[in-house]
Specification:
This protein has 442 residues and is an alpha/beta fold. Helix content is 40%, strand content 20%. It has two domains: 272 residues, EAL domain (TIM Barrel, Alpha-Beta Barrel); 128 residues, PAS domain (Beta-Lactamase), CATH 3.30.450.20. The longest helix has 43 residues.
């Protein structure tokens, strides 16, 4: 966006602020008292916006419209929760919802005229769909604003709608009119994954509860990765909500997300300007991600060298036995000094386990009954670490990290083909991902 556009928008916003004469409230929001019917009647509402950033595209994809109430004839802001709770208690949810949309649409007009590629993420209280059905009220509001429906993303929280059929009909109707549909807070509370397939949203917004500390928590990473895969396959765009740190932003990129919303880029504000600093920040995140990729590649290459050295040592020990029933003893000797190995076992050429699962220090450490080590005779022929070696005729296979069903530890499986007495066998070694692998000295 050009500097001229930014300056123009900044001037418009400054003018609007002076007209409203709104200042930061000095009172405790929890103590604010107001008449919700008067707030609605006087349209005593202030639109806030938070940018939604296309990090890889290095641009502002859109703005989410948010609302703060204003106590009539004062400068006191009313927090959103307090505002909507008051409306719910007095049966004024629908009038307030409509008034809020009017305020957001009016405030967004200047941004739209400056950049007609910009999206407005417009929140809709999904619970009212059960009452008003597929009325054209929202269409009328958007038409009156002069904003094209293709620039409007209707955000709905599907878990709040009791009438699934009515919600689906609403989505179908508004998509046919050119609006985009976003499912909000996916992954939080009682969000139903089956409704993603039924509603066919254009955008899926992942809740902060999954994003928070995702850079450190493996299970959250896997949940996010699964949601990315799902949205990609149904042709939807994923938005990571509530990103507050650079580490979280980088993790989103690492797991396939590209669009980010959260305090890391900007807090919601009524004086929002399409600042060049936001674009600079996307560049910083992308550069940091590239640096991380190089660092992880170097680390992975180093680990592979050590993994290979360890596996070579074990295969050397197995190659000196006379019979397969001696595998267990050799594995036990090898793994005594292998702190980085979770467990190891041997398969025959058909994928049947022909040794016990031998562990270093972590076998049996997990007391949960769901985790158990595979026993001799178990069929592994459908596992990737077998199939890729035998059916694709690879010599070596290294898996992605996963939680071991033997011990509950995060690990990777390194499998290698070896021969004993002209017969083919497969050594499978599970390395712990949380420790630096150490070579085995025999």
């Amino acid at each position: 966006m050009s500097i001229a556009i930014v300056v123009t928008i900044s001037t418009m916003i400054t003018k609007a602020r002076k007209q409203l004469e709104i200042s930061t409230p000095k009172n405790d929001p929890a103590e604010t008292t107001f008449d919700i019917s008067e707030v609605i009647r006087q349209k005593s509402l202030l639109a806030f916006f938070q940018p939604i950033m296309s990090v890889t595209g290095k641009k502002i994809l859109g703005l989410e419209g948010l609302i703060r109430g204003i106590v009539p004839d004062s400068d006191q802001l009313i927090p959103p929760k307090q505002l909507f709770d008051a409306a719910a208690e007095t049966g004024l949810t629908i009038p307030l919802d409509r008034a809020c949309r009017n305020a957001v649409l009016a405030a967004f007009q200047d941004y739209y005229y400056a950049n007609q590629d910009l999206l407005l993420f417009l929140n809709l209280d999904t619970a009212i769909i059960d009452e008003v059905g597929g009325s054209n009220y929202l269409c009328g509001q958007v038409s009156h604003s002069g904003i094209s429906p293709k620039n409007i993303v209707i955000e709905i929280n599907e878990s709040k709608a009791l009438d699934t059929h009515g919600l689906t009909q609403f989505v179908v109707t508004y998509k046919s009119k050119g609006f985009l549909i976003a499912l909000d807070d996916v992954g939080a509370g009682f969000s139903n994954m089956d409704r993603i397939a039924g509603l066919k949203p254009d955008i899926v917004k992942i809740d902060r509860s999954i994003i928070q500390d995702m850079d450190r928590i493996y299970h959250k990473q896997e949940v996010f990765k699964s949601l990315v895969n799902l949205t990609n396959k149904i042709g939807a765009l994923i938005v990571a909500e509530g990103v507050e740190t650079r580490a979280e932003a980088i993790q989103v990129l690492k797991l396939g997300g590209q669009v980010i919303q959260g305090f890391y880029f900007a807090r919601p504000g009524n004086d929002f300007v399409l600042k060049a600093e936001l674009i600079v920040k996307t560049t910083e995140v992308v550069d940091a991600y590239k640096a991380l990729l190089l660092e992880e590649l170097e680390d992975y290459n180093h680990k592979c060298l050590v993994y290979t050295h360890t596996v070579n040592g074990i295969i050397k020990a197995l190659a000196v036995v006379d019979r397969p029933d001696e595998f267990d003893g050799q594995l036990q000797k090898c793994l005594i000094k292998a702190d980085a190995v979770d467990c190891a076992y041997v398969l025959d050429e058909s994928g049947i386990q022909c040794s016990d699962t031998i562990g270093a220090k972590n076998i049996g450490a997990c007391e949960k009954l769901v985790f158990h080590s595979a026993k001799m005779g178990v069929d592994h022929s459908i596992k990737n670490f077998y199939y890729n070696l035998i059916k694709r005729k690879q010599d070596t296979y290294i898996s992605e990290p996963y939680v071991s069903m033997a011990t509950g530890s995060l690990c990777i499986t390194y499998s290698r083909v070896f021969r004993l007495a002209a017969k083919k066998y497969i050594l499978c070694v599970d390395f712990l991902e949380t420790q630096q692998p150490l070579p085995i000295s025999l």
